[in-house]
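Reviewers of the previous submission asked for a worked example of the structure-prediction workflow described in the proposal, so we include one complete record here. The input consisted solely of the amino acid sequence. No template or homolog information was supplied to the procedure at any stage.
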Amino acid sequence: MKIDLASNEDIQHSFIGKEYRQVGSYVHTRSEDNVGTSHVYSLPYQFQYFLHLNNSFQGDMFDTVRSLTMTDGRPFEHDLFILISKCFPLLQQLYVINYQPQINKQHSSVLITFPHLILLNLVEAHVDYGEQLLCDKNTHLPSLLDLCIEYKSLTIITNNFTNNRIRRNCAKIKKLYVEKFLRPKNFHQYFPLL
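From that input alone, the workflow returned the following structure tokens.
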């Protein structure tokens, strides 16, 4: 079955001549069930929240957004996180909802920085996104204070609290949201403020 969805250009042209100002859009098609969704938003974007960002996101400037929720049935790759760090320069909260493992785990040499990110929620995310966002060779999170993650994912990412590449991004965390667990011997080296 073939589905014909409007292109980004078609969507944006449909607003010309109406009382709307400039709009941005992107079209997302879920291959697993052939459902298409068009995301349309006014420009400049005036809201603090951006919900349901997915792999079809093309970019734009969202300097008012403080909270972003990413969700998709296809994996998020390193390049999308690079784009997000540029398009959402004042981002404070990031929620990643995606159980699909990353396909390209050989990340580029570009270090991603989220200078204002204080909350990272990975509870509904594959462990790969924890490695992507917490490992200091991939991402720099100088302001991270709150981390929400499954304990099993945390032990995998830290290699049972022996992987030093995670320490830098976890050093300032003041709140760790995980299920109850017995703190391992090296736990305090990763989370000295807890």
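The beta strands are 23-30, 35-42, 49-53, 67-71, 93-97, 112-113, 119-121, 139-140, 146-148, 175-177. We consider this example representative of the routine output the project will generate in years two and three.
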